[in-house]
Amino acid sequence: MQPHPASVRNALRSDELMPDLQEPAVMNELRWPQPLFDTLCREPLLADRCIVTSNYSGQTLIDNGVKAERVSVIPYGVDLEFFTPTNPESGTFKVLFVGQPVRQKGLHYLLEAWHRLNVSQAELRIVGTAHRNNPILSRYASEFTFRGNLDWNDLREEYRRADLLCLPSLSEGFGLVTLESLACGTPVLASRAAGSSELLQHGEDGFVVDAASLPSLMAALESAYSDRRRLRDMRVAARCKAERFPWSRFREGIRGAVQSSEVASVPSK
Hints:
With 269 residues, the protein is α/β, with parallel strands linked by helices. The chain has a domain at 93-242: Rossmann fold. The strands form two sheets. It has a six-stranded parallel sheet, sandwiched between helices. The protein has a two-stranded parallel ribbon with strand order 1-2. The chain is globular, with a radius of gyration of 19 Å. It contains ten helices and eight strands. The chain has helices at 5-13, 34-46, 55-63, 107-117, 135-139, 152-161, 176-183, 214-226, 228-242, 247-265, and strands at 50-52, 71-73, 93-98, 122-127, 145-148, 164-167, 188-191, 206-209. The longest helix is centred in the C-terminal third of the chain and has 19 residues, at 247-265.
């Protein structure tokens, strides 16, 4: 399960950066039809077991009425044979964003931070599917290189070439791109509202910042830009962290959660 819809809505409502950005309804949960929202809120209350990929997601369910004993936290895995490191190119400082260019992903924070920092010999690259006239991308059209939707091989090359992956989400159940990037040896900067930030050791294999905090994000980006040697040293630690999360670990976790639910549902004699 993803974070509880009510928690996602609260995160979006509390976001005060660029309130004039108008996203299509499909891209913003604040504009979902109320019957759909109500249905999604009821679903976790009806389940015998809610499987989530992070403590962040689990806590949003507990905060909205799901009993803690019904929540199992099982982080995603990554294909460690496909996502592998190479030696990155030196020179231009490359920051990568992978995901849908929507408010919930916090991309507007990254673009505004990038605009204000205005550092030289640096490139922000965005990978994802964009709707026509996307309001976030349109506002900052000159600030980034847009790569669109990529196949797996091209995506892997983007991870490998990047100095840093940035995931500044306002609310994110996990963020599989974190593990994919780490597996390629690329450190990750993630907000605390991205569940995968729980895997990061700040300053060792990435950076963890407050969600919806432009100063915090800018400070981390500026620190990474100013100390490229430190970033290179993080690459080994990033790969080592990813190696702790093969898909086999995820499958075993799912099996255990389902089996424990089956045992719990058997009536006592």
